[in-house]
Amino acid sequence: MATVKVKRPKLYWYEHLYLPAIFKGLVITFKHGLKAFRGKAQGSKDLASSGLGVTMQYPEQKWDDQLPDYYRGVPALVTDEQKRERCVSCQLCEFICPPKAITITPGEIQSDDPWAKVEKAPQAFDIDMIRCIYCGMCEEVCPEQAIFLRQDYAMTGTTRDEMVNDKDRLYKIGGVREGLVNKWNELK
User: Which has the least CB within 10 A, 41, 101, 117, 124?
Assistant: First the structure.
């Protein structure tokens, strides 16, 4: 393996000072401010209704229609066409979650159910949205395609308890997912 010696570039005397760098940053900021003031900044046409240039007036205006398809938002659990839980308590999402925001308590399916001998279901499934970093690893690791990240970005609550989504709330916001989704299929 060859060793490559990299020489540092020679700096001029004014490049050692921090004031020219600060001045250059102020000039760039001033240029952006002038563009916004004249209404020629990026997104100014969409936000011109506010009368304030490119500032989004959040509760009234939302960027739902500008979200890209690959946006990862709030995680939710889904059911299949027969209203059965897709989650089989394999706990892969709990193990892969970097901030440990997911907590699953495995449970058994009732004995009168025809799937009782084949599968199991979670007794409790909680996601702490304060800890969740919306990384999408839980969605990718799920073998049953039971957890999906929705396009929601406004998850609010006034207490810490409100920010913990339990199983019932996760199924309510997730809804029904019909058919096999094939998340990794290029032709979807």
Answer: 117
